[in-house]
Request: fold
Amino acid sequence: MVRLGIGDDCALLRSRSGEELAVTTDLSIAGRHFRLDWHPPASVGHRALARGLSDLAAMGARPVAAFLSLGLPRDLIRPSGRRPAWVQSFLQGLLTLGKMYKLPLAGGDLSESPVAMADIVLIGGVPVGRALLRSTARPGHLLYVTGSLGGSSAALANLAGLQQHRMTKKRTAQLAPHFYPQPRIAQGRWLVRYGKASAAIDLSDGLSTDLAHLCQESRVAAEVDAALLPIHPDASLAQALNGGEDYELLFTAPPSVRIPKAIAGVPVTQIGRILPALRNRPTITLVTPQGSAPLRPQGWKHFSKN
Reply:
């Protein structure tokens, strides 16, 4: 819990007995993670916090405290006519999402910068030795995903060519999977509470890329059945496999463990299985009606040309 928040040189945190701290940090930069002419400032704030919350969800941690450092050009600090300053709407989006998880903003920093950027640090609590890891999937375990896939990628594709002043309420609602993704905190905590999952990762970079990360850390391979994927109604198979920023949970569980069809109101779908890693076997195999083929990571990759 936060014993002392904003107002002093440091925040003071007190952890619960039997818990260890989970700490994550995420950097959002204009032109790379968001566009000032595409994304409403409230969406930028929401997304900045959602990225870190999704990391906590992947380890089954409860949110404890958030710290935010902002670098902004001067014109984003000033009100524009009757409209509030960009930074005010940004903070409203971030704080509104934080309230959903009783997550206090316990500190941070603000500085003038030529490029808008937000660096968020989140601290969570998880029972000692119970955190979900990427490195503990085993051959024979089944592969599950929460929610639906590809919605954020499909919405981002629809954003191309649209200007902020042309946004209608209907268009904004269609873009919600990208503008306002919902981290799966309740689902991650449920998996830890009942000891159901053997490994987990959040889908921030795309299924093909994040599953490859999990396989690499666990030293296993995986098989995904395309017919089982819960594809968002607006998305294609390619967007569901590679799109990223869905912030769903991808997790594994032994076949003897019963996983419900929904956790805290969010659907859960079995999409494949974990296999032994063999020299002549692809890390990920995609099974389709036309046959099986290697699924190479084609999602987000830092320092790539995408």
The longest helix spans residues 41-58. The mean pLDDT is 91.
